[in-house]
Amino acid sequence: MPIDIRSPVPAYQQIKISVKEAIVTGRLKENDTLPSIREMAQEMKINPNTVARAYRDLEQEGIILPKQGIGNIVIVSPVIVRQSLIEELVGELSLTMTKLKKTGIQFQEFAKVVAKVWESI
Amino acid sequence: MGINLEEGLQFDHVKKTYRNGVQAVNGITLNIPKGCVHAFLGPNGAGKTTSLKAALGFISYEGTVRWDGKPIEENRKQVVFVPEEKRFYEHWTLSETLKICTKMDTRLNSEKMQAYFHFFELPTKKKIHSFSLGMKTALYLSLAFSTEAEYIVLDEPTSGLDPIKRDDVLEIIRQRVIEGKTVLYTSHIIPEVEKIADTFSILRHGLVVYNGNLDGLKEKFRVFTFSKEAWQKQKAPKDVIVTVNQNQVSVLTDSDDAISLWNKEKDCFCEVPTLESFFQLTIRGERHV
After folding, report:
1. Among the partner residues B214, B263, B265, nearest to A11 by beta-carbon distance
2. I need a labelling partner for B124 at 20 to 30 A (CA). Which of A114, B71, B173, B212 fits?
3. In whole angstroms, how far apart are CA B256 and each of B140, B208, B241, B270?
4. Is residue B188 pLDDT above 60, yes or no?
5. How does pLDDT run across B25-66, given as a tens digit for each residue?
């Protein structure tokens, strides 16, 4: 899936999120190899440096491990990744929540709106 | 992580004053790492083309520019350049161009060149004087993309190209970067830069006013929009760029203090800047430092 450059979410973060989503939904399993930086850059229509930054972050978070001659291996289970995916997505949500809070909306009203949207998904 | 001065392109206090006294470049210091696309953005007369010409050794200048640690004279083989002004030998046909150019410049791979001519749908038998601006641009790019030079320097590379071909060119640029090449280019077209550049510099009056990358903008900067009245109630802020537009005041900042303060403020609206809004604000805005 290509990156949305106009999104307020930085491109490297979008890559991280899509890798984490792939792990949580089972499209990428423990011990699977991630596409190479080149392949990912081609697929996502993004420059390799951005992919490299995302992979570095994922490595630091202990989600992938680079192995010489093989590539970047997924080293954690979906359960662990799920939590960090949630944190990442909540980060995205906080941009919208900042905007909402400025409108003067009260928490209870906000919670009702959230519940309504939640039901409709 | 230190900067490797033996790799990449370094501008060190580069200045250019023309004989008529015009200071086109006022002291640019920049490190452009290898293997990336770096864009020079700026309004007309900001010093984009002059900086490129200095780096390429086409004009005299103060300061130094190093390509992989060497002056351009020692590294010219590793650099190709597409100028903004597309002048060519007008009475040649494309096939003649191919023949003569590959003789003149041994770096050119004629098979690749032919493939690019075909890709850009350039007529081989027509003389170049009958070419449109877009076709001349395509011709120049075909030459630039047909070498294995490490650095590809492009001044307004997509001028005259239709939107489809423009996207194709961006895709070729990306491909070259995936192969490890470094691309330096100037552009007026911000959505294009947004699509392709890893890093960019915004130039204004011959100075770099911002150097960074798009993800960095989105992470660090916020734009707050106030009404004029609401803005007047704010205490004298620091580290902000203020742009007044009719009844609206836009404030660009990367100050954590300002961001956390105004995030709680009801009288303003907060946005993550796009490259377009960031560019407009840095060029038009007044700095409060």
Report:
1. B214
2. B173
3. 46, 23, 14, 14
4. yes
5. 999 999 999 999 999 999 988 999 999 999 999 999 999 999
Name every chain B residue with its beta carbon within 8 A of the beta carbon of A49.
Answer: 35-36, 198
Are residues B268 and A102, on separate chains, in Cβ contact within 8 Å?
A: yes
Same domain flag for B124 and B51: yes
C-beta atoms surrounding B6 within 10 Å: 9
Predicted ipTM beyond 0.85: no
Number of domain units in chain A: 1
Contacts of B210 (CB under 8 A, 6+ apart): B201, B202, B278, B282
**Residue A49 near residue B198 (C-beta atoms within 8 A):** yes
Report helix, strand or coil for B106. coil
Rounded Cα distance between B100 and B77, Å, is 18
Q: How far apart are CA B196 and CA B33, in angstroms?
A: 15
Query: Residues in chain B, how many?
Result: 289
What CATH number is attached to the domain comprising A115?
1.10.10.10
Query: In chain B, what residues touch A11 (CB-CB under 8 Å)?
Result: 214-215
Secondary structure letter of residue B181 according to DSSP: -
* β-bridge pairing B23-32 and B9-17: antiparallel
* Rounded-to-integer distance, Cα B280 and Cα B71, Å: 34
Domain count, chain B: 2
Token readout for B286 is: 């007044």
Range of the domain at A108: 11-120
Query: Looking at B214, B249, B272, which one is the last position of a domain?
Result: B214
